[in-house]
């Protein structure tokens, strides 16, 4: 293949990629997410993305992002004006512990990751922060305010929706649900300081 033809194929591929990613981003934006483009390392490729944690994007904001440099679309979690969309993150090596922890939680939309893990997507009427203290004990992390997740369709569709017909469940207070379930399974919380829980003792189960 000669150089001009290679260039034409490359440009055509880039155009298709940009159109697909922008369309994907706009679709999730219409579903209520604030979105940002991420690079091959899954990190944001725009420097000024943190202000989007404080205000709702409009369509022009999304379209103006550099999708030509992106590999995927990320959704910002825990934003009050998006209904506190958030995710429970489970890695493949933690399935056993996580399934036991989550068996009392309402059924909801599930996003599958390339590694075989998954994200359970919820809306919470009350705010949700980032919770990573239960990853070792129960195999789960919560992606809330200040975090983001890679959305399905990203990275050449390696991220998928496992159950697209299942709606995103809305709960009263996901953060409290997490802590209450942890207590049921043996975790002890002896004090709180300014609303932040400190785990002072663990009962191994």
Description of the molecule:
- This protein is α+β, with helices and mostly antiparallel strands.
- It is built from six helices and eleven strands.
- It has helices at 3-30, 59-63, 95-102, 135-138, 154-157, 174-184, and strands at residues 35-38, 72-76, 85-90, 110-112, 118-124, 141-143, 148-150, 160-161, 169-171, 187-193, 196-202.
- Strands 3, 4, 5, 6, 8 and 9 form a six-stranded mixed β-sheet that branches. The chain has a three-stranded antiparallel β-sheet with strand order 1-2-7. It has a two-stranded antiparallel ribbon with strand order 10-11.
- Strand 4 (110-112) and strand 5 form a beta hairpin.
- The protein is globular and about 50 Å long.
- Residues 4-12 and 191-205 have low confidence and may be disordered.
In short:
This protein is of the alpha+beta class and 205 residues long.
SS element count, helices: 6
Portion of residues in beta strands equals: 15-25%
What assembly state would you assign to the polypeptide chains in this entry?
Answer: single chain
Percent helix among the residues? 25-40%
List SSEs in N-to-C order. HEHEEHEEHEEHEEHEE
List the helices and strands and how they pair.
Elements: H1 3-30, E1 35-38, H2 59-63, E2 72-76, E3 85-90, H3 95-102, E4 110-112, E5 118-124, H4 135-138, E6 141-143, E7 148-150, H5 154-157, E8 160-161, E9 169-171, H6 174-184, E10 187-193, E11 196-202
Parallel strand pairs: 5-9
Antiparallel strand pairs: 1-2, 2-7, 3-5, 3-6, 4-5, 4-8, 10-11
